[in-house]
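Question: what's this shape?

___
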Amino acid sequence: MSVPRSVRRYRRREPSDAGGTTAASAKPTRVSSVQHVPAGQRFNRGTRAVLGLGPSLLYGGLATGTLGQMQWGERGLELSPGAAVAIGIVLFAGVGAAVLSLTRRNRQFEGTDGDRLESETEPETETETPPVLTGDAIEGAQVALRSDDGDWRWRVLRREALAESPARASTRSTATDRIERTRDAIDAAGLREVTDAAVRVYRDEDGSWRWTLGRADGSRVGSAAEGYDDREAAEAAVRLVKDCGPEADVVDVEEGAITIAKRRDRWQWQLVDDERTPLAAGADGYERRTDAVAAADTFVDRIADARVLDVDAFGVELYESGTVAPGPKPESGPDRESELDQESKSNQESETEPGEEENGENGTWAWRLVDEDSDIIADAPSAFETRPAAEDAATAALAALEDTVVTDAGEPAFERYPDAAGDADRSRTGDDDGAGSDGDAWRWRLVDDAGRTVARAPDAASTVDEVERATELIREAVSDAPVLEIDEAAYEAYSDPDSAPEDNRVGDRTEADSGGNSRNDESDAAEGTTAVADGTGTETAGARWRWRLVTADRDVVAESAASYSDAADATTALERIREDAREADVVAFKTAAFRVYENDDGDWRWRLLDEGGAVLGDSDGEHDSRNEAIEAMLTLKERAPDADVVEIDAPEFELFTDEDGVWAWRLIDAAGRRVATAPTTYASRAAARAAVDRFRGQSDSPVHAVEGATFQPAVADGAWRWRLVHPTGETLAVSGSEYPTRDELEDRIDDVRETAAAARSYTTGAVTVQLVGSETWRWRLLDRDREPILESATAYSSRAAARDAVDELEKASMSAVPIFAIDAGAAAVWLEQTDEGWRWDLIDRGREVLATAVETADKSDTTAAVDDIQRLAPLAERIDVAEASFDVVERDDGWRWRLLDGDGHPVAIGDETTETKAAARDGIDDVRSLLESASVFELEGPAFERYRTNGDEPWQWRLVDENGETLLESAQAYETREATQEAIAALQSHATDGKVTVAE
């Protein structure tokens, strides 16, 4: 440490030592170790000898002044001889006493073992530490005794406290480290003068840039609220504090507030809490303040009731649209365009793109699929009259996704799928067991490479196995099936594998004892006829040909009552039947009757018919003449005494009824044989008669021999369709669409043959996912009628990418998919996960972001933040904030002030705390005045700062490091700058080499 200037001058007057260096200029080697010096040690040496001599002299002087005669004469002091002797004795005694005292003290120093001067360095615990070392005094003195060539000398030293540490260390080692750090700072420190408050910009040990606001005396008033990555950001914050702080208002928020501020030439709003922490902000800036206010008001109106949507993978949004949902297309509906053409057409017909605001003026609803980012990934092309209907459709589609198959457009296929109509029928009838093993009715369709349904099943099957067999039959049948056109009606002679003779009974005879009088009994009798190869309606054993008269719509007008051996016999029989039909009269039975008739062989027979025309009895054999037949008949007449006897000598149409009261007809030839029958029964006699008239009117229709399946075109309502008909008359398939001309129909039939030959076969569920594309790919969800339910809004670069998207859709838990709707004038809170964490947006139905989260957090904190926002927003009052503003916040240690920028981010925070909010608020006035006069400088290294608190106060100094930390403070004040400068110079001259002493 330094010494007073007078002492330094004294040391410079001392002679040089052997080495030529003065004692004043010689500096001791820096001692880094700590030496313990006992309190008061340096004051007990030498001074005791002097103190011992002083009393002796004083005593001698007093004594001689009393005993001797002393007077001043003309020649000075005159002594009598006795007095002179006495004074000499006294002086001698005093010198002797002094020598004796010094000798005794020296013995005490040295002891009996020799020189004990070094023992003075040993601790003397009974003495006290000088006050200047303990900080109880600024100045003090010390006498140093030393030996010089056997002689002793002493020196009186002045001790002065120059500086002291402003902070304490918890351990001696920490204090020692700080002393070494201070010594290094003293060596490198510069000097600056601080007369007012100052803002110090520095870089801390972590590399962050910070700043502090301090008074002239070094007391810290405030500091940066956070560290900055670069100096420019810190300097920008300081400029904001300096420029705006002196005029900044105090904004006091009780619970929450909507702040309106202008930033970067744009007006913005924020929702803040009671600590001015931003909770929500507008998504965009606004050119006018009124627009920002309106946006904030919209936020407040909609946030409270907004549903919080946590979409894990997918969500379903119901929205209003302007398109009425089309009803399901009938089986005979028009063919669908290709998948790509249909998609283009759907986009052209839609007046708004997915996601755009739609007016919904027709009151219709649609739904779309959105991902976790609220982006629309698929849209339903259909619309529904009510929102519940749209929700039901979405729910059904999502449920069906769990059991679906993925197909590719452009591949012909037989698709087997469950039939919705069958499900509905079973639901109405309550029959759960008649639909096959899986409980569904099934259909099939043939789809070509353009995605068009070119053929479909005419009826539903009970099991999927039946449908599979039907598709295989179609695949075989269409390859060489000819086109058979029927203008109005035609006879079809066909092979019937189910018809076979059972006995040799006559075709129009029924056993008398059968007791049957139903329509089915008569048909069964007709099936079991014997053959007479004469074309009269019988067949030989093994024949399986029959005929029917059908219209172009496949309505059966009449059918054969017997079967024939081959197509030629059936055709020959038809020639006679056509003639009989033209000539036959219509006979209606009013009572029972015996009928006598001659067959083609010239034999006579009879039969008994009841009033309904049912056969009650028949002759047992053939008779050579009419009379013999009548005689045989009369033997049985007592069974029907009221029956008329009618002789058959010409063809007749007989109208008859059964016990159930339904009517039918049959054609009887001149021999009394039944050659044609009604294909069905009729509710009344008039209806049966009309059926006869229809047969007679179409009896001249052409005859076709059908040996295999045939395509049969038909026109209805100006459009052409076709059927694939089996020889038995069963319709195997119908066209999947209508055609404008017959020529186009025939061209498409060729396509059907090729498609069936190349088609693969698979079973689908209620819905099917289809991949569509070439250069870019999309996916679409089709219902069981191949109508699109959902179409992807995203194009994928490859089929694999589209398939991956479908896989993600299938893997999603559809039970957890939220279904929501954002009504007009409403909004929803959308939670979103980013790389930094979870955030939220408030969106309206058009996906416009009305507000957004200011910061990210984990999911639970984000959800809690939304709850707080929904609670605070309705209570928040609107306030206008400038570029910066003050507020007061409470911390664990008390109340502090803060300065916030226009975005509500803290820029500065007070370092001084108060017990009350009012006191902290009052302190802001002092902060404003300090900022107004504060100078700004950057700490580039340690420096001595010379300062005084005001113009009347003395000067002081402090040593600060490059981080703004005060290492040393002056222990005393100085009247002038120069004195302060000298004290700093003295410190720099001696402190770096000063010995460290531990004072106790």
